[in-house]
Specification:
single chain, 348 residues, alpha/beta, 9-stranded mixed beta sheet, 9 helices, 45% helix
Amino acid sequence: PSDKHGEKTEKGADRAEKTGDGDASSERKTSADSPSAGDDSAETEPAEQARPASRFGRWRVERERQRAAEIEKERERERREAQHERILKDPGLDGLRAEERPRKERTPLTRARKLLYTAIALALVAVLYVVLVFFSPLLATQTITVRGASLLETTQVEQKLEPLRGVPLTRIDEKRVRELIGQDNVLRSVQVESRPPHELVVTLKERAAIAIVKVGETYHTVDTDGVSLMESSSEPSTSVPLVRLNGDDPQHSDEFRTISTALSAMPAELLAQVKEASATSTSSITLTLRDNTTVQWGTAQESELKAKVLLSLRQAVAQRAQEEASSGAQAQKVTVYDVSAPRVPVTR
């Protein structure tokens, strides 16, 4: 009985809703049939909108409103599209409304694509750098300056370096310069300096010539180790003395090592005054100066002190000779300087 009663109640509600819808439609129909009455009421006061009595009626009215709004939006969109088409097709309006033109959106770059572009840019920069620096004539060598040549002649060294003209400065290194110059027995090292855009400066560091040794019929200019730096058939006119040895090989001679130790301790001023040097043993070094005076040097020990004493003795002898010459007295000539005991030197 309860189920039957519920079904009757639902049927009654449906009939009420239908009756309400019918009343609402009849009211709308009446208002539509009598426009004069609506106008009269609008002139006096705004007509109160009829509110549907049922939920279905209210949903239907809301749905119609949403549909009308969607239709209005669609018409607005079509109107704007038509306006854009008209602007694009009309050449007279080109540029006037450019801000209204649709813009193409760029696709954002991915990480892999960014890395690829970066690698390509770096590769192009590297190739450009290599071409400009190592192969371009912008840094080609045009001027070669040689410094520090004393045993070697500067003009000869410059002629040996002629193949480097036109070569970019960045491609020239010390090894290449050393190979072109040669003379490994003379050169200790070579320093290369690039001065862009076109100058190359080569500084030679030669071995120090300490003496001239006659081996057979050939004169060798040697350093402190007895290494031959230059060879000539006649005695060269240099500022180093001629060393007379009993043997022929200065590199294996004890007498030469003793003499070279004494000569290397002398200042350049005194070394230039020595004409010859000899030694009968390692404890008896004898020097012959260019004014044909003899110096008894003794051993190679305390050579620096002996060199200072010898310079002081020669200066004192020269000063005394000037004083005697100015006074008219007969000058006493000194032919022997004995500095083998430097603290008690002797002149004869």
